[in-house]
Amino acid sequence: VSKITGGLLASFLIKQSVSIPILLFLSAIILFLSLILVVKIKPYVKKERVGEGKIVPLMKEGILYILNDKKLKLLFTLLALAMFIVTSIDILLISYFTETLHLGVENISFVGAASMLGILLGSTLTTKLYKQIDRKWLIISPLFVVSFSMSSLIFVGNWMWILPFFFLQGISVGIFNVSLVTFLQDEVTQDKLTRTFSIYSMITSSMTLPGLLVFGYLLQLIGLDYTLFMMIAALVMIGLFSMLNMPKLGSGKKLKG
Length: 257
What we know:
- The chain is mainly α.
- It is about 75% helix and about 0% strand.
- It has 11 helices and no strands.
- The protein has helices spanning about 1-15, 20-40, 55-65, 70-85, 90-100, 110-130, 135-155, 165-185, 190-205, 210-220, 225-245.
């Protein structure tokens, strides 16, 4: 909700000709206030003390634990490949708005708002679906939905008509995120849970930069349409590979929503 509100407010202020330096200054003030508030938060669970020099061995243990579990190895491979592609969508949207539609990039906030609303709905739906459907399909099927929504940038010539596509994408992303995280909570042993989630966070954050570099270069080299075709084809191939190779994950414990 905060991302939706912030994005729409920023877009409105840019359309009202508020200068970018003023917006950056306001953002800096809000970030400083948030820092003060975050520092005052007391953790509910006390941090487990790790002896000096033990962090690297613990990380190695976590990686080996994932590599030795077929389900987790496939899931984390799927996660890394999906994040490599999906986190680069913003750079394609910038190209779509500026080069194809010749509009300002502030309009991307409306696409982001549609996507975030979809994520909220998808996260809510997962509490109903998680116990009813094999978690394999909750995690894999969003790949096909995202590839479908990305195709709208090729065939749709009005930015308002891509909003429903990105709303559907948001629903699928919400289902993917909640299903994968909850699967890890359900299946990973308690003593490996922290390390597993650390690696999960590392993958989701580290895939952004290489994805932007690769697809940014492809945009310069072959243009928007061909880059989109490559990304869509890659997502579909990852989805098909996962469907054929990933074992059934079963339904999970009912989520409290």
